[in-house]
Amino acid sequence: MADALPYTDADPTVTELLATHPNLKMDGVCGLMMDGVSLTAIANAVGTPTWVISADTLRTRMARLKNAMQAAGLDVSLHYAVKANDHLAILSLLGKEGFGADIVSGGELARALKAGIAANKIVFSGVGKSDAELQEAIAHGVGQINVESAEELDIIAAIAQKLGRTATITLRINPDVDAKTHAKITTGLAANKFGIPYEEAASLYARASTLPGINAVGFATHIGSQILSVAPYRAAYARMAELVQSVRSQGLSVSVMDCGGGLGISYRTEVEGQPEALAGAMKAELGHLGLKLAIEPGRWPIGPAGVLLGQVILNKARGAEAPFYVLDTAMNDLLRPSMYDAWHGIVPLSAQDAATPAIPAHVVGPVCESGDTFARDRLLPPLQRGARVAILDTGAYGAVMSSTYNSRPMAAEVLIDNGTWHSIRPRQKRDALWHTETVPAHLTAGNT
């Protein structure tokens, strides 16, 4: 189910949302708890808006992915998709657990290395890698570069030769498979900007195998994000299996298949993507080929691990119409609802509020855009000024997409680990909004 599809069933209640989020519990006295820690206590200490991430949830979900692959008898390496949430604390945690990283920029490469993830465990994806980024990646010896085009292949070969290095590459293939997800997060259709056309793959791989400075080891594919069914995966992997067999029949070696990411989560009432089903699809279509497999999970492990705390600035009554609950949290903090019409659960922090009969309400932010809306006609308790809420499933593509639009400072970030919370980013100070800006002297002359 895509983020923007209209929903015809009733929204889940607070009780129903909590039942699908094992890291959250409503305590009658302390209110909403994450991993046994009071979210109200965190809000009291650091204010709102604040991102809160459960380290235990992230570890548990990554372990489930790993175990599903092992149970299927597959040789699979896991590379966390840094774009989902790139905080150094998150990357350090995953590095200590032995996972690699999937990056899409030089900045993400620098973050992964700083967090202690070894270069040979890093996969460099992305449709527009700059020469400088490629030079840095090759110099560091990243484990794999996923090549997006014939033009990029030639650029990588030239840079590797100049450095006197050999770049290990796979060709990212566009299998022209519809992932049945939101149009803005599908990546495997022929009309998308990503990957090499399937029809050109075999000939380009043959050429890659002859280029100096290039070690061509296999293929990669990625068909989209927030995928809830394994059917699109099976279709894509079946096409990739045919490609591997065709290339091998030409006497060329293929040892690696990067199967991408995109496994979806349950934001509302969807049945989330199942790692065991994904492993089954990989085994069914690719398991007989003796390949070293890889996946790039991002949203699935980190999305449900996070919440965004906000506070009601104003309950704006509108007579018989649904009121506006105006939060101190805005689209500059969480962009997904504005960008994708994404649905996120909203739960009061107060147990008393959560138990109050719900009414339809619109939940909005204070930014000067009509798109600064988190929910419309959402059944919620009457939330008065000062009431606090948690916006659920914001661990992925939340803080990492934030901005300072309307000169709003970046929100604070907190990590809960083993029942203790840690501040991992303080709230941005207002004067930091302009600390890198300079004003030409002639514009400041005479100012007081």
Keywords:
448 residues, alpha/beta, Lyase, Ornithine Decarboxylase, Chain A, domain 1, TIM Barrel, 9-stranded mixed beta sheet, 8-stranded parallel β-barrel, 21 strands, disordered N terminus
| Helical content class | 25-40%
**Which ranges are low-confidence, i.e. pLDDT below 50, for 5 or more consecutive residues?**
1-5, 178-189
CATH class of the largest domain reads: Alpha Beta
Number of domains: 2
Family: Belongs to the Orn/Lys/Arg decarboxylase class-II family. LysA subfamily.
Pathway: Amino-acid biosynthesis; L-lysine biosynthesis via DAP pathway; L-lysine from DL-2,6-diaminopimelate: step 1/1
Active site: 368 (proton donor)
Subunit structure: Homodimer.
Question: Any overview of this molecule?
Answer:
- The structure is a single chain.
- By secondary structure, the protein is α/β, with parallel strands linked by helices.
- It folds into 2 domains: 14-54 and 303-434, Lyase, Ornithine Decarboxylase, Chain A, domain 1; 55-300, TIM Barrel (Alpha-Beta Barrel).
- The protein is 29% helix and 25% strand.
- It contains 14 helices and 21 strands.
- It has helices spanning 14-19, 39-46, 55-71, 88-96, 106-114, 131-140, 150-163, 198-208, 231-248, 275-286, 299-302, 336-340, 351-355, 441-444, and strands spanning 24-27, 31-34, 37-38, 50-54, 76-81, 100-103, 122-124, 144-147, 167-174, 196-197, 214-220, 256-258, 292-295, 306-318, 321-327, 346-348, 359-364, 373-380, 388-392, 412-417, 420-425.
- The strands form 3 sheets. Strands 4, 14, 15, 16, 17, 18, 19, 20 and 21 form a 9-stranded mixed sheet that branches. Strands 5-6-7-8-9-11-12-13 form an 8-stranded parallel beta barrel, surrounded by 5 helices.
- The longest helix has 18 residues, at 231-248.
- It is globular and about 75 Å long.
- Mean pLDDT is 93; it is low at 1-5 and 178-189.
